[in-house]
């Protein structure tokens, strides 16, 4: 969905969000996902037919103890890795990380936020945010204008020309969130987005995510250990013994 500045545009966007919520369109799914890792000594079966369906505009949290396979699952859903068996569906199509289109699906349909922000230290906040848009072929000036508008929306208007090391941890993670959103992806996949932050900055990021989800209908799949904030999600799955169970 596009961000619209006009009243009519906003009305139209909200109507689409309500439509998706009413009719429950599945925008991301993993079916019977299996993944194991083998080293010289042993094979670990991390995912054993893990299945989930995410509907458009949903906020889904995935919890589970350390080592249960949450990041592995997110990597499969984000086409960063391939399952041994099982299928991933994005926007109604079955997709694979080895497809020629995978890179453009990752850049245009998906946004990623990780525990560590991975901002480029030599680029300002606005340049970091604009980068995925420039990579997708949009002109530098238009990408910067969009980045500034998005940073403004995430309450970072005063920080657009700051470098990452001039920002607080929470601000850095909000810039990373803006970077994930710049190409207006259908789905944002976040792996412990607040895992590296203190409670105050952590709540700041969760508030932003909830706002984006509620006001724009942005779909989020978030891996987290933060059970208190995860309880704010519409759907929570627990990953245990390689399988997902709805809570
Ligand atoms: N590339 C890899 N090669 C071998 N083993 C791996 C690899 N990636 C993950 N693992 C193993 O798979 C298991 C699941 O890892 P994963 O990172 O998905 O768990 P997690 O639930 O995200 O853990 P945490 O909450 O601690 O981040 C772990 O035992 C891990 O050591």
Automatic annotation (TrEMBL):
Kind of enzyme, top EC level?
hydrolase
For this record, an example GO cellular component is: plasma membrane
**Family to which this protein belongs:** Belongs to the ABC transporter superfamily. Macrolide exporter (TC 3.A.1.122) family.
- The answer to whether keyword ATP-binding applies is yes
Q: What top-level branch of life does the organism fall under?
A: Bacteria
Which keywords appear in this protein's UniProt record, sorted alphabetically? ATP-binding, Hydrolase, Nucleotide-binding, Transport
Indicate the segments forming the ABC transporter domain, all copies.
28-247
| InterPro entries per record | AAA+_ATPase (IPR003593), ABC_transporter-like_ATP-bd (IPR003439), ABC_transporter-like_CS (IPR017871), ABC_transpr_LolD-like (IPR015854), MacB-like_ATP-bd (IPR017911), P-loop_NTPase (IPR027417)
Q: What is its EC number?
A: 3.6.3.28
Q: What is this protein called?
A: ABC transporter, ATP-binding protein
Query: GO molecular function terms here?
Result: ATP binding; ATP hydrolysis activity; transmembrane transporter activity
Signal peptide annotation = none
Is rRNA processing set as a keyword in this record?
no
Q: Which residues cross the membrane?
A: none
């Amino acid at each position: 969905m596009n961000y619209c500045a006009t009243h009519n545009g906003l009305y139209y966007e909200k109507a689409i969000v309500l439509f998706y919520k009413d009719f429950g369109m599945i925008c991301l799914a993993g079916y019977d996902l299996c993944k194991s890792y083998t080293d010289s000594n042993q094979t670990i079966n991390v995912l054993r037919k893990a299945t989930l369906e995410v509907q458009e505009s949903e906020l889904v949290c995935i919890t589970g103890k350390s080592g249960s396979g949450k990041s592995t699952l997110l990597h499969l859903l984000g086409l960063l890795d391939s399952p041994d068996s099982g299928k991933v569906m994005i926007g109604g199509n079955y997709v694979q990380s080895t497809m020629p289109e995978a890179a453009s699906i990752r850049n245009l349909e998906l946004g990623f936020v990780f525990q560590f922000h991975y901002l480029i230290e030599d680029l300002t906040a606005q340049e970091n945010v604009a980068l995925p848009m420039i990579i997708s072929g949009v002109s530098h000036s238009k990408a910067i204008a969009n980045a500034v508008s998005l940073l403004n929306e995430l309450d970072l208007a005063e920080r657009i020309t700051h470098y990452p090391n001039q920002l607080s941890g929470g601000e850095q993670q909000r810039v990373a969130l803006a970077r994930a959103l710049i190409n207006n992806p259908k789905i944002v996949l976040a792996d412990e987005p607040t895992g590296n932050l203190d409670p105050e900055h952590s709540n700041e990021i969760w508030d932003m995510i909830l706002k984006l989800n509620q006001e724009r209908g942005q779909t989020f799949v978030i891996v987290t250990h933060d059970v208190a904030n995860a309880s704010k999600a519409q759907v929570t799955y627990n990953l245990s013994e390689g399988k997902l169970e709805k809570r």
